[in-house]
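Reopening: structure tokens for the pyridoxal-5'-phosphate complex, inputs below.
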Amino acid sequence: MHYLDAVTARDQSGKKYLVFASNNYLGLTFASEVRQAAAAAALQQGTGSTGSRLTTGGVGAATILEKELAQFKHAEAALIFNTGYMTNLGVLFALAKPTDVIFSDELNHASIIDGCRISKARIVIYKHGDSRDLEQKLQQWEQAAQTKHNAVPVCRFIVSDGVFSMDGDIAPLPELVRLKQQYQATLVLDDAHAVGVLGNDGSGTAAHYHLEGQVDVQVGTLSKSLAAEGGYVAGKKIIIDYLRNKSRPFIFSTFLSPADMAAALAALRLLRKDAPAYLQRLRENTEYVRRALTAAGLPVVPGTTPIVPVIVGAADLAVKLEQRLRQEGILLSAIRPPTVAPGSSRLRITVTAAHTQTQLQQLVAALGRAWLECM
Ligand SMILES: Cc1ncc(COP(=O)(O)O)c(C=O)c1O
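Re-run output (same inputs, fresh job):
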């Protein structure tokens, strides 16, 4: 697929599509400031970083970007990794030890699941978004810690997506913050789908709940609203310094290119300068699609974020709908097991600030027709 602008793309046969499947929530991959910054960086500094950040790969803009990301996330410091996936791996692997315990939401992203696994910490899965279940599980550990001294975990972690990538719902952060305080746990929150989406300044889940400064470790990605590639973690300086020195995915991989750093920095600055305008467009577009599809009788999972799941049920039906929409020039994703539970296959629509009203109407009309034909 070859993008023509932020929301249209062409496939290899030359067929054009309207895209409702990207994570380019603010449409910044085609903002002229972002493209010019990336092009200038490549022309002036070359196309690759040539090494790990700790050797020759120290791209200048990375330090500036980290400083601005930390300010944006209301944190003391930040550290950039090569992808959001590697950030979760790198953070959990470095921070959680085999004697520790991680409490993880059952619908957390695969990169969190993999990070938990490689840490070798004990993993306790709590029901999705269910703080009562989490509390019960924390209590059980507390009781075990008081009775069985050998099994006492050294540290507890609570880890959750901020916005869940397949359901589009928002983590119950006030409860997670309360529980992490009550049980002396470290709270790790992955805001990959929340930055550029939640909060008055677009800085994510903590800002959405007015809980800035309350999350210990905030993970994010540069590959969604920030229009580039890469991931980052923001938190207290002592944690970030530790990760810089101990996190293997950070240490042992060639760093991102100057163009990636310049693009992400330009996108972040655009967002910080004009957050209300970007967020208003995104929220209006999201509301329109959610309302119109619901009014047309489609089973939209209720919510407020631009991840709009339409539950189909059977996997083959979801694929049939996806293909039918492709014929009409609409690109969206059929999500099936194992990504989601059996029987909950769905169409996952992502809305962006860059879609026009006409394009949103095209989606609603095409999906309505396809639904009547296939269901
Ligand atoms: C919640 C979440 N975390 C992390 C990632 C990984 O980010 P990246 O694509 O930058 O590796 C994703 C990617 O889709 C995600 O949805």
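The chain has two domains: 2-31+274-374, 49-256. The first strand starts at residue 2 and ends at 3. Marking as resolved unless the reporter disagrees.
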